[in-house]
Design goal:
By secondary structure, the protein is an alpha+beta fold. It has one domain: Pnp Oxidase, Chain A, CATH 2.30.110.10. Helices cover 26% and strands 39% of the residues. The chain is built from 3 helices and 7 strands. The protein has a 7-stranded antiparallel beta sheet with strand order 2-1-5-6-7-4-3, sandwiched between helices. The two termini are 19 Å apart.
């Protein structure tokens, strides 16, 4: 297995084994801002629903670039950090993104109007103290 294949495999494993993501954004009135959310992925692309009136979505409208972390809050287990560029998807994609989230987490639901978002990662970092 090449190093690139091993890294991609580790990333895909972390994406499949975790439901929660932390996003760091800047650009709006509440800048910088960190949000915890649930996500689904298709290969290395991340999808989520963000609250339409939320601070994170407001920041992404001003500045689509941000950072993310996916972790089990245990430095001995592999975790991801990454830089991304967000694309605010059309409202017509909300059902598709919601179906992805429910397929991964059958209990998933939202309580406020949400907007579908795609995160395209430009740089991934796989870390853990166990890998040192």
């Amino acid at each position: 297995m090449t190093p690139e294949t091993e890294i991609k495999s580790a990333i895909l494993n972390i994406l499949s084994e975790n439901n929660a993501i932390s996003l760091a954004t800047t650009g709006g009135e509440y800048s910088p801002w960190i949000l915890g959310a649930y996500f689904a992925s298709d290969d290395l692309t991340i999808y989520l629903l963000l609250e339409q009136s939320g601070k994170t979505l407001a920041n992404l409208k001003q500045n689509p670039k941000g950072a993310l972390m996916i972790s089990q809050n245990d430095a001995m287990k592999d975790f991801l950090q990454a830089q991304f560029e967000a694309t605010l998807l059309p409202a017509s994609d909300e059902d598709r993104v919601r179906q992805m989230l429910v397929a991964k987490m059958p209990w998933y639901q939202t309580y406020t109007p949400c907007a579908p978002v795609r995160l395209d990662v430009s740089k991934w970092f796989v870390s853990s103290l166990a890998r040192q």
